Amino acid sequence: EVQLQESGPGLVKPSQSLSLTCSVTGYSITSxxxxxxRKFPGNKMEWMGYISYSGSTSxxxxxxxxxSITRDxxxxxxFLQLNSVTTExxxxxxxxxxxYLDYWGQGVMVTxxx
Amino acid sequence: DIQMTQSPPSLSASLGETVSIExxxxxxxxxxLAWYQQKSGxxxxxxxxxxxxxxxxxxxxxxxxxxxxxxxxxxxxxxxEDEGVYYCLQGSKYPYTFGAGTKLELK
Lengths: 114, 107
Description:
The complex is a heterodimer of chains A (114) and B (107).
Chain A: E1 3-7, E2 11-12, E3 18-25, E4 33-39, E5 45-52, E6 57-59, E7 67-72, E8 77-82, E9 91-97, E10 103-104, E11 108-112
Parallel strand pairs in A: 2-11
Antiparallel strand pairs in A: 1-3, 3-8, 4-5, 4-9, 5-6, 7-8, 9-10, 9-11
Chain B: E1 4-7, E2 10-13, E3 18-25, E4 33-38, E5 45-49, E6 53-54, E7 62-67, E8 70-76, E9 84-90, E10 97-98, E11 102-106
Parallel strand pairs in B: 2-11
Antiparallel strand pairs in B: 1-3, 3-8, 4-5, 4-9, 5-6, 7-8, 9-10, 9-11
């Protein structure tokens, strides 16, 4: 069974970097696409970007140069780094598989606050 | 970016009632549309992909239709477990974009 699990700090200070890990079991991240999505307070959802089976990436331009998605194939994990966070980055962050996001992690709530 | 206009923002349905949720894209998305259900405190669950394909394990009362810029999700016979927030997602062009969500409640 495919399972994804996010991990990382729940509290980040403004101007610092947010770093999350998505650990995948039951499926190799060298196949398919792997994405990050966030849900803001109030229900708005945003697709942040993905890393492909080959390691190529695509990012939401709204995040400009703040975002980076990388991976460690030996650990079957992929990562999100979001730099220079503000309070507007407070959200629940999800990782998910595939173009149609057929498997999701349970989500991690991240608050940006001093 | 492709804008996804989802309606209605909320609705209340009786047990057994048929429900429809609409999404309109700002340009042709060639059926590259998915529907998700998110129950309170849970992760989103994929219901429909490629506009009308039912994801494995999803009850057959859920169906999707549409083409071009207009898409809809139908629930044929509302059940208590169908309460939640429903989202559409266009996967035609990057960045992928979501609709604003529809909160569905049992009347």
